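Figure 3 (text version): structure tokens given as input.
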């Protein structure tokens, strides 16, 4: 799989790159961003996969979070994929809503038409993108971490829980903790997966905690003034699930912070330090 470089920018001694490649999983061209720290000039480095939220592309995190400074200090690459397949032939929400279709792939493998032709974001993140990255960039594929925001926090948690041994650490900002129990999740899972709620459990972190074969510690930061806290995110459900099944969780509610990238930028250094403890010898 050949990566086409779209752009490069010097950043904290390293390089902020953007690539395009053909995705078989999503049956379209996909873009992703990659920050390579200075250490990547001479050796393979560990990588943090960052999954963004609703309406985002591969560029939101790299341009707004200020993560490169910390990634450079710890010698960690950051891989930031897009949030859905894209293109003229890719189906979108028929009503043009922001919470389904383009920019809202929810990191699942769709089983319902017409979404099942392209919306295979789970396979793309878990298998296809890492294979391409490991083949063509100086990444140590044995030292990986995963994190994300909102919809991407949901993706990071579920992917880590479903793939024991794949990631050395996991964290999330303002994750959609139980898609089965919120409007965003019910719309996405119902549209992509269908009406059988039993099938939804496979993409709900609170449900997956019970059967987790690895007790990977979870770090979650949640803004106390987040406008979606009670209606969509529901960290109390994740806290209850982790307590019931003795899964290590560090849930930090940050007073006064909302759902924006101002919140992420304020605490991203803590998260990268959390991952560095697991990734960097």
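Below: residues designed for each position.
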């Amino acid at each position: 799989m050949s990566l086409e470089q779209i752009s490069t920018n010097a950043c904290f001694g390293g390089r902020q790159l953007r690539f395009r490649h053909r995705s078989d999983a999503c049956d379209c061209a996909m873009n992703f961003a990659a920050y390579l720290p200075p250490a990547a000039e001479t050796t393979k480095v560990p990588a943090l996969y960052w999954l963004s939220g609703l309406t985002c592309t591969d560029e939101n995190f790299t341009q707004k979070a200020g993560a490169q400074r910390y990634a450079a200090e710890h010698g960690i690459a950051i891989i930031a994929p897009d949030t859905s397949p894209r293109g003229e032939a890719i189906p979108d929400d028929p009503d043009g809503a922001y919470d389904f279709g383009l920019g809202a792939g929810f990191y699942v493998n769709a089983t319902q038409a017409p979404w099942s032709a392209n919306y295979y974001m789970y396979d793309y993140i878990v298998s296809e993108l890492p294979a391409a990255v490991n083949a063509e960039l100086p990444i140590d594929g044995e030292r990986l971490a995963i994190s994300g925001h909102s919809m991407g926090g949901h993706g990071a948690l579920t992917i880590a829980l479903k793939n024991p041994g794949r990631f050395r650490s996991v964290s999330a900002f303002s994750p959609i903790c139980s898609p089965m129990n919120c409007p965003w999740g019910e719309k996405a899972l119902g549209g992509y997966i269908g009406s059988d709620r039993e099938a939804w459990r496979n993409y709900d972190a609170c449900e997956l905690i019970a059967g987790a074969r690895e007790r990977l510690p979870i770090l979650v930061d949640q803004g106390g003034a987040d406008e979606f806290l009670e209606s969509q995110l529901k960290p109390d459900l994740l806290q209850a699930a982790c307590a019931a099944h003795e899964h290590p969780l560090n849930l930090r509610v940050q007073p006064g912070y909302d759902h924006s990238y101002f919140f992420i930028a304020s605490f991203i250094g803590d998260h990268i330090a959390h991952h560095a403890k697991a990734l960097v010898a």
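The first strand starts at residue 4 and ends at 11.
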